[in-house]
Design goal:
- The complex is a heterodimer of chains A (267) and B (271).
- Chain A is built from twelve helices and no strands.
- Chain A is mostly helical.
- Chain A has one domain.
- In chain A, α3 runs antiparallel to α7 and α3 crosses α11.
- The longest helix of chain A has 27 residues.
- Chain B has one domain.
- Chain B starts with a helix and ends with a helix.
- The relative contact order of chain B is 0.12.
- The chains are: A mainly alpha (267), B mainly alpha (271).
- At the A-B interface, α2 and α9 of A face α2 and α8 of B.
């Protein structure tokens, strides 16, 4: 069965994360560094917007504070990426090359789950907090108080966004099984994700089509932000959830066929 | 320098370049990904300005001007970018500097050769793509002028040298701190605005553009890009080259200082 509830896996993950957190707590200076880094990034992003909005009042029909809401969502997802995905599945390409993946496959747990969630950089979760704070502040400046239904739609769309981002990582890192010598595959994600910093409606038509249907970047930031600002019917969050489900299932299949190509350190 | 010494240096650089080229060849797929990453930022910026300029020129910049500016920026950025801080940081922290110091040639020469090999390969790729795009899309075609291109080439060379010394000197801070690369990222964040990576400097608030003029940032990118697209003329060209020369000299000085001081300290730690 593909979808049994893996209680043993959760136990393993809990143990791994406990060790992780204990380890990270030793390096409290990293917390300050990470916080300063995030604040610097947010200020840079806001100044970037300020430069654009000196010359326009709307970006893809979004006004300034709406785009700031989107930046908040972007930063929230960045937190998830930096805390969970990059330290975990981000190391896959190197392990496929070195054969280090052998050690993972030898364990009696689901390889994809283990590779994906084995490590947490807890300090980077501050990005999630700061991102949501930024989105909340922008919403306040917009003078919009989201209804309960809108908040629920946002929560669902954001969860779907996390799944889509995760699926993108799995899809890109699976390429490592075909292109063994490429160790910096995560750079490909960074390049793609750069496109998620602005609402997709700001891009020319072709690019918009690509971001919605082919490389589902639009579902990561534009959709949750739209749900929060009331641009979207709350019911649309269900579509986002469905998209996330489909994308997740597809990457699961991709992962399986990719893994079949792995020949180990001796191969 | 006698002819014999000059010949000797040519031979050394030939060997270093050959090694660097072959190493890059081994990692050519990775290099393509770095290249892709390098061009997304200007591509996204172009997309946004393209949307903003839909209703007409922005302070004299029409859509085609933005297209030319950011295509030139992609090329110039690739030709002048220097990753040396990251290399030096790991060389110093992991002790890989030791065997490089034992060689009868300064490690900076290896770094220079790597830069040349890397840039020849990646900028060549950008040029090919640019030519193909230009065949279909007149907006990104550059006005042809041999003299203007020669000046742009000189400015790119000076900018590349300056960014190399900035990166090298900052990387050498790893002798003192573990956050040398963080300083470099801070520098990159500031240069996003002040070097013209986000927008032509004319589109920044005038006060910010004026402040940028007091630093080396515009001479890293904006000036060579404007020369290439033909946006600067007359006295501004002379002023740009003077600025490049002055700031290059400053950064060479910074490099010499960090190198001599740092090595003394490094010896103390290792000895």
């Amino acid at each position: 069965m593909m979808f049994r509830v893996p209680t043993a896996a959760f136990r393993v993950l809990r143990a791994l994360w406990r060790i992780n957190v204990a380890e990270e707590l030793q390096y409290r200076a990293n917390f300050v560094a990470s916080l300063l880094g995030t604040l610097f990034w947010i200020v840079t992003a806001l100044l970037t917007l300020a430069v654009f909005f000196r010359h326009t009042t709307r970006l893809g029909d979004w006004d300034y504070w709406e785009v700031v809401v989107l930046l908040g969502v972007f930063n929230t997802l960045t937190g998830v990426i930096e805390a969970v995905l990059r330290p975990g599945i981000g190391r896959l390409a190197g392990e496929v090359k070195s054969g280090g993946l052998d050690l993972v496959l030898a364990k009696p747990v689901d390889a994809q789950g283990f590779v994906s969630f084995r490590r947490l950089d807890v300090w980077r979760f501050t990005d999630v907090v700061l991102g949501l704070t930024l989105a909340g502040y922008a919403l306040y400046r917009l003078g919009r108080v989201p209804s309960f239904v809108q908040l629920a739609a946002f929560a669902l769309a954001l969860a779907a966004a996390v799944v889509v981002v995760y699926a993108l990582w799995v899809a890109l890192m699976s390429l490592a099984f075909w292109f063994v010598s490429v160790e910096n595959l995560s750079v490909l994600f960074d390049a793609l994700y750069e496109g998620a910093r602005y609402p997709v409606s700001a891009y020319p038509g072709v690019l918009r089509f690509v971001f919605v249907y082919l490389i589902p970047i639009a579902w990561t930031t534009t959709i949750p932000a739209s749900a929060l600002t009331g641009r979207l019917e709350p019911g649309f969050a269900l579509v986002a959830a469905a998209v996330a489900g489909v994308v997740f299932a597809l990457t699961r299949l991709l992962w399986r066929s990719a893994l079949k190509r792995y020949s180990g350190a001796s191969g | 320098m006698s002819r014999l010494v000059r010949w000797e240096w040519l031979r050394r650089y030939g060997a270093l370049l050959r090694v660097a080229w072959l190493q890059d060849l081994q990692y050519r797929a990775s290099i393509v990904l770095w290249l892709l990453w390098g061009v997304t930022e200007p591509a996204v910026a172009l997309g946004i300005w393209w949307a903003i300029a839909a209703d007409g020129p922005v302070q004299g910049y029409a859509r085609a001007d933005f297209a030319r500016y950011f295509f030139a920026l992609m090329l110039v950025n690739q030709l002048t970018i220097a990753w040396d801080s990251w290399y030096l940081d790991s060389w110093i922290r992991e002790g890989e500097l030791n065997f490089r110091l034992a060689r009868p040639i300064h490690p900076a020469h290896e770094a220079v050769a790597e830069n040349i090999a890397y840039k020849a390969r990646t900028a060549g790729m950008i040029l090919v793509v640019w030519l193909i795009v230009a065949a279909a899309w007149p907006a990104v075609r550059l006005p042809f002028g041999a003299g203007q291109w020669a000046l742009a080439a000189a400015a790119v060379l000076l900018a590349a040298a300056m960014r190399f010394f900035i990166s090298f000197a900052t990387g050498l801070l790893a002798f003192w701190t573990t956050r040398a690369t963080a300083i470099m990222e801070l520098h990159a964040g500031i240069s996003l605005f002040l070097s013209g990576r986000l927008a032509p400097l004319a589109l920044l608030p005038p006060a910010v553009a004026r402040v940028a003029g007091f630093f080396w940032f515009p001479y890293m990118l904006a000036f060579p890009v404007d020369l290439l697209t033909g946006a600067v003329h007359g006295a501004a060209v002379v002023q740009g080259f003077v600025g490049q020369a002055v700031w290059l000299a400053v950064w060479v000085g910074a490099y010499r200082l960090t190198w001599t001081r740092g090595l003394r300290r490094y010896g103390a730690v290792g000895g």
